[in-house]
Amino acid sequence: MASPERPSAQTILIVDDNEANRALAQSTLEDEGYRVVIAPGGEEALALFSREPADCVLLDVRMPGLDGFAVCERLRTLPRGADTPVLFLTALRDIDTFDHALRAGGDDFLTKPVRPTELVIRVQSALKVRRLRSELHEHYDLLKHQRDALLRVQLQKERLIAFVVHDLKNPVSAMDLHAQLLVRDKTLPPDALAAAAQIRVAARRLGRMILNLLDLSKGDEGKLAPRITPVALGPLMTQVTSELDPMAREHGVRLESSRGGVDVVAADEDLLERTLVNLVENAVRHAPEGTVVQLTSRRQASATEIRVIDAGKGIAPELRAQIFDPFVQLKAQGAPPSRGGRGLGLAFCRLAVEAHGGTIRIEDAQPGAVFVVTLPDAAPRS
């Protein structure tokens, strides 16, 4: 009979004390191209397998000396014996014998008299299962290696983030402090005061980038948990526009804010402030000179909607979801090459807003873009 493709000279060990049974199985399998070795008893079979492990074992159950069950149990302890398919041959067709064969480590169970066609099909199936098991084991080893490599990268990333946050945060804060001292020194000439103000703006921007990186790392680990309190929205919006006013003036852009009758919002004040600063800063970078960037709010059903509106070239609809991914910088429809800034600010905004149970989206300003943050009245459930 025709057999499926298989490696040549696969070895089948036949263990049976009956010479006629051995001869029939041997001729059937050799006709299929297998290499066959014979053992008339259990001890001889174990000795043969120890010298040269077979690819498959046909094992009679009832034999003098060691029976088939004992042979199978000992074979499983030998090198390469654990994954070698064992097919039991027996004239006993009952559930107890079947269960005993499985407990002993058997892979299949054939009852005598065995038909040649069935014998070949069962051997082919056992060898195929063994090959698949070996391939799966290789895939498992590969996946384990890849998992270990990813874990090592994750640990290296955490170490880098710890360095950035803890070792750079203090010097950046010191830069901001000294810049404040210079700004308050009225004896300095105007150009020096302007330079000190710019140093402070840059220091605070760098500080936000460091905090964004830390929060993005927490978000990856599911550890970013906002502390929700009532936040006075009007003073917060004024604080945001005041902080970014030097940057806006440098770009020739004017900032406007309007709370639209919204007095209080349920939010983590620090996360919300940094979200708005990132959005307004992003808008200023891409607003044409002589235009206005607006920060507004209004009430919606059971939510507060905060909008940051610029008059730039906007963002194509098909790119609006990508812009919130970390380290993404988009250029489309004539937009400036870094609409996403350094790729951290907008990613942080989405993370912070979603941690509040809210949403962030982009609409057309015609011209320009509108970043819309919607925050629910109730705190998100943990």
Q: What is the CATH topology classification name of the largest domain?
A: Heat Shock Protein 90
Number of strands: 12
CATH architecture of the largest domain: 2-Layer Sandwich
CATH superfamily of the largest domain: Histidine kinase-like ATPase, C-terminal domain
Task: Report the CATH C-level class of the largest domain.
Answer: Alpha Beta
- The neighbouring-strand order within the major sheet is 2-1-3-4-5
Approximate helicity band = 40-55%
Strand residue content? 15-25%
Helix and strand content put the structural class at alpha/beta
Q: Span between N and C termini?
A: 65 Å
Number of helices: 9
Give a short account of the largest sheet. 5 strands, parallel
Mean pLDDT: 84
Rg (C-alpha, Å)? 37 Å
List the helices and strands and how they pair.
Elements: E1 11-15, H1 19-31, E2 35-39, H2 42-51, E3 56-60, H3 68-75, E4 86-90, H4 95-104, E5 108-111, H5 116-183, H6 190-220, E6 229-232, H7 233-250, E7 254-258, E8 264-267, H8 269-286, E9 292-300, E10 303-309, H9 345-355, E11 359-364, E12 369-376
Helix pairs in contact: 1-5, 2-3, 5-6, 6-9, 7-8, 8-9
